[in-house]
Design a protein that fits this description.
This protein is α+β, with helices and mostly antiparallel strands. The protein contains 19 helices and seven strands. Strand 4 and strand 5 form a beta hairpin.
Length: 553
């Protein structure tokens, strides 16, 4: 009795029979698509959890390892506005907000950390900054080699960068791990989104699949801070990163399992990968540029608010730390509602996806106008929920639209176009926190929201440009017109028509209802009578055969 004859627990079937049934099921396109969506959703969830899980961990840990230079503050600077008291393994201390600078009171000595805000901001932004430069490379590689290998490479890099976060004990190592995560995300996120777009070809199904993936992104961003803070407080820094690395490893094995039978079926069908459109050509397309600009503008709102709203809540409504984190949790539900609404609208009215994106961006701008005037904690929840609802409308409408544009105007290969989408997200989160901090310090939180509101409201009418995209007709007639052939650089066909004037019927390359021999004779006689073609005619005018000059007859 071999290993294949062993019964699988809870199934009651031999191992070889289970393997064969699993292999047969993976040959079915519907089953393949579902597994692809599950794998990609887990990868996106993991990436966004890794992005946000460090928020409650890194500031405290960098102080614990003495990553910053410190100096004491003189008695004149001890004008306290808000003081909170804490106790942990390092001792008892209090955090005091003085002239908008966080200082630590340890045993009666007021200590200030030099360069802490800029250092943490740089660490947070390094992932998105690296993604901007890696995404053009990842998009080109995905278009050339397929979706699975680049995605596997991205998951592998994310696995090692997560372990590096767990083991790192210096600012330099953590900065390198954060940047390395940007490399992995550029390949995993872009490859995953492109794979979903490739498997779900119908527009309504593609909108639904990408909407599910976006829901996992939102869930990862919201659940990661409490997940990381709880495990860091009670289990230590390495534990949350080790758990996420284990999830990354499982997702990599799942990708291997589903891609092997998919490649086997493609090889049996003789399916060849078409030549992709270069990313630079997609970047200059006005429809794709319009979508990319809308994605940047929509995510600038969150990129500006996330690093600044906590401090503003502390100063204006005396909000506790748990309240500052909890303010984003209710926004998950309107985000999911926005995804569901957009998916249903895409199924019934696919030509109005641009309108949903326009409304979503306009709602973001109006919400930013309201936020600075919210003096109550619960009132503040409403504009934040409205912002997340608007972002759900924009992302769920425009991500499938990018794939639709490529299908209509270019080759249906999606690596480069979703690399452009990832560049849009990364641009907002790479430069947003830095710019937001400078604007708040110089002009204030209200001015920051006014700037974001004006950007969102002014850009929203530009999305109207996408209105005619569904009316775009791709020329699919084989051969095309003569002018099209010349412009495309293809050589003209060698087929031509000859006509028998006595019968008045066109004969294409000698085709007729006669026998093959008759066809050849008729063809040659007509050609000689009408053209007088002579194969011995020379191109040299001084060596023409006798009788070829009409003036010497």
């Amino acid at each position: 009795m071999g290993l294949n004859d062993l019964n699988v627990p809870f199934v009651g079937k031999p191992l070889h029979q289970v393997r064969q049934e699993w292999w047969d099921a993976l040959q079915q396109p519907e089953y393949q698509r579902r597994l692809v969506l599950v794998t990609v959703s887990i990868a996106l969830l993991l990436d966004n959890m890794l992005y946000m899980v460090i928020v409650p961990i890194i500031p405290d840990y960098l102080r614990y390892i003495n990553a910053w230079e410190t100096h004491t503050v003189g008695p004149k600077a001890q004008i306290q506005e808000v003081t909170r008291y804490y106790s942990n393994a390092t001792g008892n201390f209090s955090v005091t907000s003085i002239n908008r600078t966080a200082k630590i009171n340890v045993n009666g000595i007021l200590i200030e950390y030099e360069g802490e805000d800029s250092g943490i901001g740089l660490l947070f932004a390094s992932k998105a900054a690296v993604q901007i430069f890696i995404n053009p490379i990842s998009g080109t590689v995905i278009d050339k080699y397929g979706y699975d290998l680049p995605m596997m490479f991205g998951l592998t890099v994310m696995f090692f960068s997560t372990l590096l976060f767990a083991c790192g004990s210096s600012y330099g190592v953590l900065f390198f791990a954060r940047s390395l995560q940007g490399v992995g995300s550029a390949f995993a996120d872009t490859g995953g989104l492109a794979m979903v777009a490739d498997r779900y070809t119908e527009e309504a199904e593609r909108s639904k699949a990408l909407g599910i993936a976006l829901a996992f992104i939102s869930f990862g961003c919201l659940v990661a801070p409490p997940f990381g803070g709880f495990l860091y407080e009670f289990c230590g820094k390495p534990v949350p990163f080790v758990i996420l690395a284990f999830v990354c490893l499982i997702d990599g094995f799942l990708l291997l399992l589903i891609m092997r039978p998919m490649k086997h079926k493609e090889a049996e069908e003789g399916k060849e990968r078409p030549e992709a459109t270069p990313i630079w050509r997609l970047l200059i397309d006005p429809h794709i540029a319009c979508c990319a600009g809308a994605l940047i503008t929509a995510n600038i709102c969150l990129a500006f608010l996330e690093p600044t709203i906590s401090k503003w809540m502390n100063e204006t409504m005396n909000a506790e730390e748990w309240q500052q984190g909890l303010i984003w949790l209710p926004a998950f539900f309107p985000h999911v509602a926005g995804v569901v609404l957009t998916v249903r609208m895409a199924k019934k009215y696919p030509e109005y996806q641009w309108l949903l994106a326009l409304i979503g961006l306009f709602l973001e701008g109006v919400s930013c106008l309201v936020i600075p005037f919210c003096g109550n904690y619960f009132v503040l929840m409403f504009p934040i929920c409205l912002i997340c609802f608007g972002i759900a409308l924009i992302d769920t409408a425009l991500l499938p639209t990018l794939g639709f544009i490529v299908d209509k105007k270019y080759t249906s290969v999606y690596g480069s176009v979703y690399a452009i989408a990832d560049i849009s997200y990364s641009a907002a989160y790479a430069f947003g926190p830095v710019a937001a901090g400078h604007i708040v310090e110089t002009y204030g939180f209200t001015t920051l929201n006014m700037i974001v509101a004006v950007l969102s409201i002014v850009y929203s009418p530009i999305i109207y440009y996408l209105k005619d995209m569904h009316d775009y007709k791709k020329y699919e007639e084989p051969g095309g017109s003569y002018e099209e052939n010349v412009l495309m650089g293809d050589p003209p066909t060698k087929e031509y028509q000859t006509y028998s004037m006595s019968e008045g019927k066109p004969v294409l390359n000698g085709s007729s209802t006669a026998a093959p021999s008759a066809k050849t004779e008729h063809y040659s006689s007509v050609a000689q009578e009408e053209t007088g073609f002579n194969e011995n005619v020379s191109a040299n005018p001084f060596r023409q055969p006798q009788g070829s000059n009409p003036f010497r007859r």
